[in-house]
Amino acid sequence: MKSIHWKDIAELVGIAAIVASLIFVGLQMRQAQDIAISDGNLSHAANKIERNNLIAANPDIWFKGVTGEKLSDTDAVVFRRLVQNVYDVAHFEFLRTRRLGQSGISTFVVAEFSAFLFENPGARDVWSERIHNNEGWRTILLPDQSSLSDFDVEIRADLEILDRQTD
After folding, report:
1. Out of 40, 127, 135, 149, which residue is the most buried by the measure of CB atoms under 10 Å away?
2. What's the sign of the alpha-carbon dihedral 47, 52, 56, 58?
């Protein structure tokens, strides 16, 4: 009888050790996820700083461009790249938050970029031209797939709402 008792105790200790190791692995996974989220936040902040520095380095082009003023050919190239940088920062943040399951934040990112386009007609023109061109090429090259990303589809929907509000 004594050997059975020790056997039961050994099994309980083994089960407890397995449960403890699973809890430890779970805590490690949570910590790794927190570190990854923090790294993503840091990268996003660095991207925003770089974007803002590029805009600050070209204030006349940026101001003329966002207001829709006529730009020289070379300034138009710079302005398109600046708008693309603003778009890229927002798009990558949208994708990152979607992957993390933070749909509320990704919706906020879309709304913020949509408002930026709505308030800055020159930037909206650049974005619209780029979307139009990409749609054309993607329709030819990828006929069985959607020609727009979820990000762009949501921006279009937001812009339609904003446009209706001002009519």
Report:
1. 127
2. positive
Q: What is the mean pLDDT of residues 136-141?
A: 81
pLDDT, one tens digit per residue, over 72-127 is 999 999 999 999 999 999 999 999 888 888 888 899 999 999 999 999 999 999 99
Please state the domain extents for the chain.
58-166
Cβ contact 124:118 at 8 Å: yes
Indicate yes or no: pTM above 0.85.
Answer: no
Contact 61, 78 (CB under 8 A): yes
Axis-axis angle for helices 103-119, 121-141 (nearest 10) = 120
* Exposed/middle/buried for residue 92 (C-beta within 10 Å: 0-12, 13-18, 19+): middle
Contact 119, 67 (CB under 8 A): no
Task: In whole angstroms, give the CA distance from residue 91 to residue 117.
Answer: 14
Distance CA 30, CA 17 (A): 20
Element (DSSP H or E) covering residue 143:
none
